[in-house]
Specification:
The protein is an alpha/beta fold and about 270 residues long. The chain has one domain: 3-Layer(aba) Sandwich (Rossmann fold), CATH 3.40.50. The protein has twelve helices and eight strands. The relative contact order is 0.17.
């Protein structure tokens, strides 16, 4: 079958989905895997900016689908990691330019020569989401520990299940332990009680994420920050490694218990 296709999605915008996609892809590539990122957010592309590749775009995903270029011509090689590539979204078209069948065909071609394909899905539940979901082997849902974000993530879980995909995995992003302790932010336990899916990673709020994104350098390539290490850990869990949940979350008794139960691939016992 070749590469695994991982679709990174969210119920609402602004939760860190694109940053998460870029960082997991960079971590997988840094570990020696051949990785291709696809920006499926037609008309609103941002993945190229987060990866620092915006000035290298010649062709995009719609050009491939409509036959104006070969797939290889649209693949932009990363500046830092030699086995990481980006296929950018078209900025002057809308989501109707791509169909689910197109995405399945593009990823089928990419599977043969790569290890991982990460798709940055548009936020929400419209047609662009269905395009990104169609070829997915693994679905990662990114949410923040906020009531509105969790509610929207719950809607996405229902749509994933309706498409008969494997149960999605959860990334809890931009967690602020101090606010959790004060009761001003949902606990991981509360979020998991609502969503009832596997937790594959917890990423703390980290101002370096914004700085790195503005510079076009995924933080996972550094690993000195807490968020960078969290993204690396998520990538390792995707690869099947047994990795405890992030140490910063140990103050949360539930996460501490859960971290001792994490098995290969991040599956709790």
């Amino acid at each position: 079958m070749g590469a695994k296709v991982v679709t990174v999605t969210s119920g609402k915008g602004g939760v860190g989905k694109t940053t998460t996609t870029a960082n997991i892809a960079a971590a997988l590539a840094a570990a020696g895997h051949r990785v291709v990122c696809i920006d499926a957010d037609i008309g609103l592309r941002n993945l190229d900016l987060v990866m620092g590749l915006e000035n290298r775009i010649v062709y995009d995903l719609v050009d491939v689908v409509e036959g104006r270029c070969k797939l290889r011509q649209a693949m932009i090689k990363d500046k830092r990691v030699p086995n990481l590539y980006l296929i950018p979204a078209a900025q002057t078209r809308d989501k109707t330019a791509i169909s689910p069948e197109d995405m399945i065909e593009v990823t089928a071609q990419l599977r043969r020569d790569n290890d991982w394909i990460l798709i940055d899905s548009p936020a929400g539940i419209e047609g662009g989401f269905r395009n990104a979901l169609a070829p997915a082997d693994i679905v990662l849902i990114v949410t923040n520990p906020e009531v509105s974000a969790v509610r929207d993530a719950d809607r996405i879980i229902g749509l994933v299940e309706a498409e008969e995909k494997d149960p999605p995995k959860l990334i809890l992003n931009r967690v602020k332990p101090d606010m959790v302790r004060r009761g001003e932010m949902l606990k991981a336990e509360d979020v998991l009680e609502v969503l009832a899916i596997e937790l594959i990673g917890v990423v703390p709020e980290d101002e370096q994420v914004l700085t790195a994104s503005n510079r076009g350098t995924p933080l996972a390539l550094d690993g000195r920050s807490r968020a960078g290490r969290a993204f690396q850990a998520i990538a390792r869990r995707l690869m099947g490694e047994q990795v405890p949940l992030e140490e910063f979350a140990a103050e949360d008794g539930f996460l501490r218990r859960l971290s001792r139960k994490v098995r290969t691939g991040g599956q709790p016992a």
